[in-house]
Amino acid sequence: MTTIPTLETQRLILRGFTQADFEPLAAFFADEASARFVGGVETYAGVWRRMAFYIGHWDLRGYGMFALEDKSSGQFAGYCGPYNPIDWPEPEIGYGLLPAFQGKGLMTEAARRCISFAYDELGWTTAMSSIDPNNAPSRAVVERLGARFEKHAQVSDFTADIYRHLDPTEFRKTLNS
Question: Which domains does the chain have, with CATH numbers?
């Protein structure tokens, strides 16, 4: 089994999923407003399979979604990470954040750390994020990270806007500014 690294940011711990993450993840995917842009509402059992998929992705690809833990409260806050299901056009940085943690810059912080991980630890030379065209908050996250709209594309069973993140050299410059 692949060992999932633990990463940190100023306010988050990025780690592997645990059993304790299931209930808040299930609540997130049970809520139509929360799940709207990340595949839609799922059943309790469907969320269990999703979490198992996130964990299994690490063994199949050597990378995957991290569970996000808020340092100040110790609570599960969401997920973020390099991601590449079999029916995706290319690897991406994907994410979802529980409503209680939104609007605080945490997703930008987590995605920045995951892009660094993808470039520095995995050797990626490019990264994208696929975003529902109606998801303005997600678009704002990637734009704060320097990503630019590239194209509309079919991603699995939905049409998404593909945002291309800065290449590794340009991205690293933003970390030092």
Answer: 7-175 (3.40.630.30)
